Amino acid sequence: RDGLTVLGLETSCDETAASVVRLAAAGAQVLSSVIHSQIDDHAAYGGVVPEIAARSHVEMIDGVTRRAMSEAGLNWSGLDGVAATAGPGLVGGVMVGLSYGKAAALARGLPLIAVNHLEGHAVSARLGAETTYPFLLLLVSGGHCQLLEVRGIGDMSRLGTTIDDAAGEAFDKIAKALGLGYPGGPALEKLAASGDGSRFELPRALLGRKDCDFSFSGLKTAASRLAQTCETEQDRADLADAVQKAIARQLAERSERAMKDYAEQHEHRLFVVAGGVAANKTIRRTLEDLATKHGFAFLAPPMAYCTDNAAMIALAGAERLEKGLVSDIDVAARPRWPL
Ligand code: KG4
Ligand code: ZN
Q1: Is the preceding omega at residue 134 within 30 degrees of 0, hence cis?
Q2: Is residue 216 within 6 Å of ligand 1 at its C-beta?
C-alpha cells in the first residue's frame, strides 16, 4: 500500500471535525474533511460555552466521523492509524474526540496518535503544497500567537509568544465592542473593507523590544474604548480598518525580527503563516510582501485549513506515525500543552 492513511479527529474548541488524509511520497492528499461548526449554538452567548461545546461534540462525533469515512470511500481496514487532538483546548471537548479515537483504535487494532492541536496548525500548510522542513512559522489563532522554528514533526522551538492576548482573541473582542457577531475576525475583516482607518491612532506594543514577543491587550483596550465613540457605520468601518492594520503591522514587525535571526542560521528560507487569523487577506498580503522582501518563500494553508479542521490533525498524525511516534492508549487529554 502506498503511503499512510490516517483518520484525524478534532474536538478541542467549537468545531467537531473528522478527516481522512493519505501521506505518500508525492505529498499529502485529503480524502475527506468534514467539519460541523457549533457557531449557532454559541452565538447567543458571544463566545464558546465549554459545557455546550462538550455536549455538542458528544452528539456529533459519531456522525461526523462516519461521514468522513464514507466520503473518503474507505472502511476501517483501509486505515493505518487514528489520530486525535489531545490538547490544548477545552478539556471537556478534547476528551470526547480523544476517547472516541481510543475506542476506534482499540476496536480496529490500529495505532493511536495523540496530536497537539498546535502541531496540527504547524503542518497545515503542507495540506496544500509540498513543503520541506525546516521553516519559520507564525501561528496565529484564537488562542495562540507564536513564532516557531519548525524542523520537523515533534521538533520545533518557540522564538516568541504573546505576553497577553492572542491575535484572534483581539479580533474577537474588538469585534464584539463594535457590535459584530461571533467569531469576530471574519466579521471585522468584512467591515474593514469599506473603511479607512488613517485618522485613528492606536497604540503600538513592545516597540523597540529585541525579542519576538507579541502583546495585544493595549490595542484591545484602546480600540474597545474608541468603539464606544463611533456614531456612524462609516466610523465603525474606519475603526475596523485601523484595527486590522494595527494587528497586521505588529505581526509583521515581530515576524521581520524573527526572519532576520532565522536567515542567519538557515539557507532554506521558507516563511509559513497558519491558524485562523491566517485566513485574513490583509494579514496574508502583508506577510507575503514581508517574506518576499527578506528573501523568504511564503506559504499559507488553503483557506479551508486555516481555521480549525481535522485534516491538519490527520496529517500531523500520519507524519508522527511515519516516525513511529505513536501513543499509549491511556494518554490523557491536556487543557494546556505548550509545543
Ligand atoms: O485556528 P482557529 O480556528 O481556532 C483556534 O485554534 O483558536 O482560529 C480562530 C480565530 C478566531 O479568533 C477568529 O476570529 C480568527 O481565528 N479568524 C480571523 C479570520 N478568520 C478567523 N481573524 C481575522 N480575519 C479572519 N478572516
Ligand atoms: Zn486552532
Answers
A1: yes
A2: no
